Each structure stands twice: as C-alpha cells, then as structure tokens.
UniProtKB/TrEMBL annotation:
Name assigned to this protein: Aspartyl/glutamyl-tRNA(Asn/Gln) amidotransferase subunit B
Catalytic function, reaction form: L-aspartyl-tRNA(Asn) + L-glutamine + ATP + H2O = L-asparaginyl-tRNA(Asn) + L-glutamate + ADP + phosphate + 2 H(+); L-glutamyl-tRNA(Gln) + L-glutamine + ATP + H2O = L-glutaminyl-tRNA(Gln) + L-glutamate + ADP + phosphate + H(+)
PANTHER family membership: GLUTAMYL-TRNA GLN AMIDOTRANSFERASE SUBUNIT B MITOCHONDRIAL AND PROKARYOTIC PET112-RELATED (PTHR11659), GLUTAMYL-TRNA(GLN) AMIDOTRANSFERASE SUBUNIT B, MITOCHONDRIAL (PTHR11659:SF0)
InterPro entries per UniProt: Asn/Gln-tRNA_amidoTrfase_suB/E, Asn/Gln-tRNA_Trfase_suB/E_cat, Asn/Gln_amidotransferase, Asn/Gln_tRNA_amidoTrase-B-like, GatB, GatB_Yqey_C_2, Gln-tRNA_amidoTrfase_suB_CS, Gln_synth/guanido_kin_cat_dom
SMART domains: GatB_Yqey
EC number(s) from the headed UniProt entry: 6.3.5.-
Top enzyme category: ligase
Function as written in the Swiss-Prot or TrEMBL entry: Allows the formation of correctly charged Asn-tRNA(Asn) or Gln-tRNA(Gln) through the transamidation of misacylated Asp-tRNA(Asn) or Glu-tRNA(Gln) in organisms which lack either or both of asparaginyl-tRNA or glutaminyl-tRNA synthetases. The reaction takes place in the presence of glutamine and ATP through an activated phospho-Asp-tRNA(Asn) or phospho-Glu-tRNA(Gln).
Highest taxon, organism lineage: Bacteria
SUBUNIT field: Heterotrimer of A, B and C subunits.
Residue ranges constituting the Asn/Gln amidotransferase domain according to the UniProt record: 350-497
Family, per entry: Belongs to the GatB/GatE family. GatB subfamily.
Keyword set, alphabetical order: ATP-binding, Ligase, Nucleotide-binding, Protein biosynthesis
Length: 499
C-alpha cells in the first residue's frame, strides 16, 4: 500500500529537515584490508579469498598499510583531526554476508575526526557540511536473492553469497547532523557526495564508481517543528548508490515523514531501502543502536600509530584539490562563473578535461558534453560517464570537424553511431561513408536545383532578403544527404543571386 505524502513545498514550510550521511568509499588497494587476497571487481564469485577473509578459526588479520595511508590522506582533505593512535574494534552482528559474524571497524578511537567539507551548490552558494569521523573498516560480502523481482529478497526462494568483497577496505565518512539546509537539503546532500567522489578520485584512493558499488551512502532524515526544537526521530535509508537516488530519497522521506506527523502518526527509527523502480523507500528493520553491536577492541590487532613525521610525509604528497583545480581550469578555459557552474552541475568537469587532454579545444569539448551527450544521458537517466563514448572519441569527432571531413550534422550522426555501439568515430564514418561534399560542381548543381524548385525564395534572396536562405541550404543538405559544407553552399548561393 502506497504511503501518503505531503507536497514537498508544504513539508519544508511546516517542518525543519535535518539530514545525515554515511558515505562508504571502497579503497582501490590491490589487496584486502587484513589479508593478501587480491581485489578485482566482477571476478568469479568466491575466488578472491583467504582464511582471514572467510573468518576461519586460527586465521589472524594484518593491517594493510596502504589502506591506512589512503585514509590519512582523505582525512587531511576533509580537514579532519588525524589521531596519532587509533584502534580497530569488533562490531558484532549476524548476517550471511559477514563470514566472521562481526565486522572489523573503528568505534571510539577512529583515525579521522571532527572535520568539514565546503560544497558549492548550483547557484554558487557555499554550504559547510560538518564531519564527525572518517574511519576505516572492512566490507561485507554480497548477497544475491534468486527467484524474486529485480533481485530483491521479497519473493525470493533462495539466496547466494559471494565473499569476494568481504574484507575489502572501506572508509566510512559520517557527517554530524546537517542543519540549516531547509528546502535545499537534497541538493546539499547530492553536492556533498559528489564532492567526496571528486576528492577520492583526485587522491587516487578509490574508483568511486557508484554503479559498481565501490561508493554508496546511507541517508538519514528527520523532521522537527522548528530549527530550535530537538531532533526528530530519523529514518536511515541504506546503500543508496546514485546521486539522483540520494536526492530523491531525501525528498521522498521529507514528504513521507511530514504526512505521518501531520496525521499524528509515529516516525519509526528504522532502516529503509530506496526502490529505484517505484521511486519510494520501503521499511526494513528497526534501527539498531550502537550499544546493540557490543563493540570491543579487536584483540588480534594492535593500535594504529600514525607518527607526526609520517603524517607530514603524507601531507607533502597531497595533490591539487578539486576546488583549486576548478579555479585553475576556469582560468585556462576562459569561462565565466556561470559556465563553470553549468559544467559542475552537469558533472562533466573530468570528462571535459580528459577530452581537452586528448586534443580537443575546451570550447568543443564543452559543447559536446553539455549538449548532445548531456541530452542523451538525461533521456536515459544515467550519468555522463555511463554513456558508451569516451573523451578520446569526442576528441576524434572534433578533429574530424577541424579537418573538414565532417560538418556539424555528420558529426552528430557519427556520435549517434558511437553511442549505438558501432565502433570508434573513424569506424562509424567509414561504415556509413560520411564525408563533406566539397566538390564545387556537385554543390553548384544542388544549389541550382534548389533555386529552380523555389523561385519565390530565389526572388527574395535576389532582392536582398536573406531570411529564407535556410530553405535553400536545407534543400541542398537534403539532396547531398547532409554532407554538403554549409559555408560552401552559402558562397555558391550568394554567387548565383548576384550573378
């Protein structure tokens, strides 16, 4: 039964939303956090295992130093206080994808704490998100439910478990309650998670591909009558793995909770799940408090010691951060603030930079990624980077235009071919025989035929009225299957009407 929802504008006018985010970032180390098992996305199930990642009796964990270094770098980027001494703890719970029946995480002595991240919203406003901690832990395995709809547990007749992911190193970044966002709470959340994605990619510590599960977020939402009232009861929507999903989850939960409060109903402190197909959240289990996990220091692991000297060494390795990079590229590409915000809002900065690096001009790269390709991604409701076209492909199309081999229309057809899986731009051009007709004789004949077929247009052009020029150009393009050079066509038309 569908839950009742309040209109979003009414909900945020009547209640003050408070959100919190727990972003899980899978680190791109070669081996797992506590054992030498190799990590490879999409590998054969249950092949990337050791006795440690299976939790077999007698196996002992050893900390992956690279994972700790990665976590320190992220802590520095998030303006966190880096603890000289931190500790791993056992988080006890029972679930089929947790082979040890406990997760090795950090509890009261995390590596990184008390940080913040300033994020830029669509209109350029800067919003500061407070960060409580960014701690290190290992991931669980993956359950696959068979027999139900869309792989969900509802209706499934059995489940399969793949332990390849068990033991993969994670950093969990936990915000403090995010207050003051109001109606922009969803936008703040989306911008924050995108900023985290940009930072971990810049640091080269994670692939951060949400569609592959190596970055995901738990989304907490609560409502209160006013900003000075105590926090309301929160829901926690687990493992949301897209930026749009995060934003839609928050909007839906605000509307759902507001409708319940309006009717005097209780808000349960529970875990929920986002259903992309129905664009709704569904209730799961009652939310467990930290005490129920029975945390205690892991007796098999010594405390982690990050010396001041090692912290300084890692700080010296820090690359240019995303905001500084954006400012530099904006200056290099001679963009206005609005133009750069359009690029950021479209999540196209990396793709445009890679396209420029492959040989395209900044203007040409921006035109494609914010134009044809952005429309294609929006129509399919996917991100730009999920489109089956690479920055190198776009740069190749630009090169074909610059060389005079393609005009704009043929270039668009070429891009469509690449998106359809027909190969590289060069292969699409060869397959369809795309080429600009520059032969003067062929163009002159097509222009003469078009003028003869449209005598009224010809007369207007001869009298100096250039408005109907497009009729002739369009007719020539049709006759040449879009392969005529528009400038050459215009030159021939002007020559004829003056002659």
């Amino acid at each position: 039964m569908a839950e009742k929802l309040m209109k979003f504008s009414d909900a945020v006018a009547k209640y003050d939303p408070v959100i919190g985010l727990e972003v899980h970032v899978e680190l791109s180390t070669e081996t797992k956090l506590f054992c030498p098992a190799h990590i490879e996305f999409g590998g054969e199930p249950n092949t990337q295992l050791t006795p440690v990642s299976l939790g077999l009796p007698g196996s002992l964990p050893v900390v992956n130093k690279t994972a700790i270094d990665y976590a320190v770098k992220l802590g520095l980027a998030l303006h966190c206080e880096i603890a000289e001494w931190s500790q791993f703890a056992r988080k006890n719970y029972f679930y089929p994808d947790m082979p040890r029946n406990y997760q090795i995480s950090q509890y009261d002595k995390p590596l990184n704490g008390n940080g913040y991240l300033d994020v830029e919203l669509e209109d350029g406003e800067i919003f500061r998100v407070p960060i409580e901690r960014a701690h290190v832990e290992d991931d669980a395995g993956k359950n696959t439910h068979v027999g139900g709809a869309d792989g969900r547990i509802e209706g499934a007749d059995h489940s399969l478990v793949d332990y390849n992911r068990a033991g993969v190193p994670l950093i969990e970044i936990v915000t403090k309650p995010i207050e003051g966002a109001g109606a922009r709470a969803a936008e703040v959340a989306g911008a924050y998670v995108k900023a985290i994605r940009d930072i971990v990619r810049t640091l080269n510590i994670s692939h951060a591909r949400m569609e592959q599960g190596n970055m995901r977020a738990d989304v907490n939402v609560s409502l209160r009558p006013s900003p000075d009232a105590p926090f309301g009861t929160r829901s926690e929507t687990k493992n949301v793995n897209s930026f749009r999903g995060i934003e839609k989850t928050i909007i839906y939960e605000i509307r759902r909770q507001a409708a319940r409060l309006e009717e005097g109903k209780e808000i349960l402190q529970e875990t929920r799940h986002w259903d992309e197909s129905t664009q709704t959240t569904a209730g799961g289990r009652v939310k467990t408090d930290a005490d129920d996990y029975r945390y205690f220091p892991d007796p098999d692991l010594v405390m982690v010691h990050v010396t001041p000297e090692h912290k300084a060494e890692l700080a010296a390795q820090m690359p240019e951060m995303p905001r500084e990079r954006r400012n530099r590229l904006q200056a290099e590409w001679e963009l206005t603030d609005l133009q750069m915000r359009d690029i950021i809002n479209a999540d196209a900065l990396d793709l445009i930079e890679q396209t420029v690096a492959a040989g395209a001009s900044a203007a040409g790269a921006r035109k494609w990624w914010l134009g044809e390709l952005s429309r294609e991604a929006n129509a399919k409701e996917i991100s730009l980077e999920e489109l089956p076209i690479t920055p190198a492909d776009v740069a190749s199309v630009e090169a074909l235009i610059a060389s005079g081999k393609l005009n704009d229309k043929l270039a668009k057809q070429t891009v469509s071919g690449v998106l359809a899986g027909e190969g590289t731009p060069e292969q699409v051009v060869e397959k369809h025989g795309y080429k600009v007709v520059s032969d003067d004789g062929a163009i002159e004949k097509a222009v003469d035929d078009a003028l003869a077929a449209n005598p009224d247009v010809a007369e207007k052009l001869k009298s100096g009225n250039m408005k109907p020029m497009g009729v002739i150009i369009g007719a020539v393009m049709k006759a040449t299957r879009g392969q005529a050079d528009a400038k050459a066509v215009t030159a021939v038309v002007m020559k004829r009407i003056k002659g």
